[in-house]
Design brief:
binds nicotinamide-adenine-dinucleotide, about 325 residues, alpha/beta
Length: about 325
């Protein structure tokens, strides 16, 4: 019987850099557009205490690897004990062997920012040099770094609802990214108006957008990442109306409040020509991305299983090559 490599959270943190993850995310999004990835719909079992058990399953056909993220998204009580907890088992689809069991927590942070970076590389103006991050939690910090990997970013503008958190993020980013000017803004408007790329990465759950379309100048690229539920939104209707919009997977991402709320209010048509399609189509050159320097583009993600499995595979291959992790017979 084959052995299974167990790869824990700390090792994942060491092995999965955003730089390594971006090419893997581009390949996976492109493969999805080309029909080379199979995914099941996300299944969720809600519990009374607010904990959600989620299962996200995908098979990467070219890599002959399949897996499933099994994760608990914690409700308010469980969140006091820390972040979400989960694993990704990786199977070889030819031999049927269980190659690895990989911790999922760090993957969720890094793959989300790396997917956004892949989309930003495909859509943002080539000369974009200022990036704003609205919401400086885990995703915000990862996104700020990821933006610097795909464009010549010289300035990062950070805004958070509680300013201390933005200041802590600024200090951490300034240390990690020497040579980049990192500034904390007093308002979301100040950050957004002065940016070429804007990432919304808050955990806001209400129907009170934090980004307004009236603040966007021609040529801006927006990454709307934080809102994954149908009930809340980060970007207002004007942003949706002004943008050419791409998704990690359109069918799933259109259910998030960023799109579902303005569609539900009949403020934009469900078949609006603003909704272009999956970002993988742009990476596969079957869809046009930015068509002019004036276009405002937007990437809306909700998180898909294929990129979890692809990121787990990056970690597994690095760990196996370096003889890291713990081998067990299951
Ligand atoms: N699109 C995806 O693929 C994807 C993947 C993972 C996480 N997410 C989402 O990203 C969001 C952020 O995740 P995280 O791990 O960084 O969370 P986090 O708790 O580390 O950070 C959230 C930040 O949002 C801010 N915030 C909360 N409520 C706000 C409000 N009403 N207005 C403005 N700011 C507010 C907080 O101050 C905090 O800094 C979550 O909603 C999560 O569901 C999306």
């Amino acid at each position: 019987m084959n052995k299974t490599l167990i790869i824990g959270r700390e090792l994942c943190r060491e092995l999965l850099t955003v730089e390594d993850c971006i090419p893997a995310m581009k390949n996976t999004l492109r493969a999805l557009a080309e029909g080379q990835v199979k995914m099941l719909d996300r299944s969720v079992i809600p519990h009374q205490n607010g904990n959600l058990l989620a299962l996200m399953t995908a098979s990467l056909l070219p890599q002959e690897t399949a897996g499933s993220k099994v994760i608990i998204f914690p409700g308010p009580e469980a969140a006091k004990n820390g972040t979400s907890q989960g694993i990704i088992p990786l199977f070889d689809t030819v031999t049927g062997s269980l190659k690895a069991i990989v911790d999922a927590t760090q993957i969720t942070v890094v793959r989300t920012a790396a997917v956004t970076a892949a989309a930003t590389d495909a859509l943002a103006a080539k000369d974009a040099h200022t990036a704003a991050v609205l919401g400086t939690g885990r995703q915000g910090i990862a996104h700020a770094e990821a933006m610097t990997k795909v464009r010549g970013i010289t300035k990062l503008l950070l805004w958070n609802r509680t300013q201390e958190r933005a200041e802590a993020a600024a200090a951490a980013l300034a240390e990690k990214l020497p040579g980049i000017d990192v500034e904390v803004c007093n308002t979301a408007e100040e950050a957004a108006r002065n940016a070429d790329i804007i990432c919304t990465t808050t955990s806001a759950r209400s129907d009170e957008p934090i980004l307004k379309g009236e603040w966007l100048h021609p040529g801006t690229h927006v990454n709307a990442i934080g809102c994954v539920s149908p009930m809340g939104r980060e970007v207002d209707t004007e942003t949706v109306r002004k943008s050419r919009i791409f998704f990690d997977q359109a069918e799933a991402a259109k259910k998030s409040g960023d799109i579902a709320i303005p569609v539900g209010l009949s403020e934009i048509a469900s078949d609006s020509e603003n909704f272009i399609g999956d970002i993988g189509g742009v990476l596969a050159a079957s869809l046009a991305g930015r068509t002019s320097a004036e276009d405002i583009t937007m990437f809306k993600s909700i998180g898909i299983s294929a990129v979890d499995v692809a990121a787990a595979l990056v970690i597994y291959e690095k760990a196996a090559a370096q003889g890291l992790g713990v081998e067990v017979e299951i």
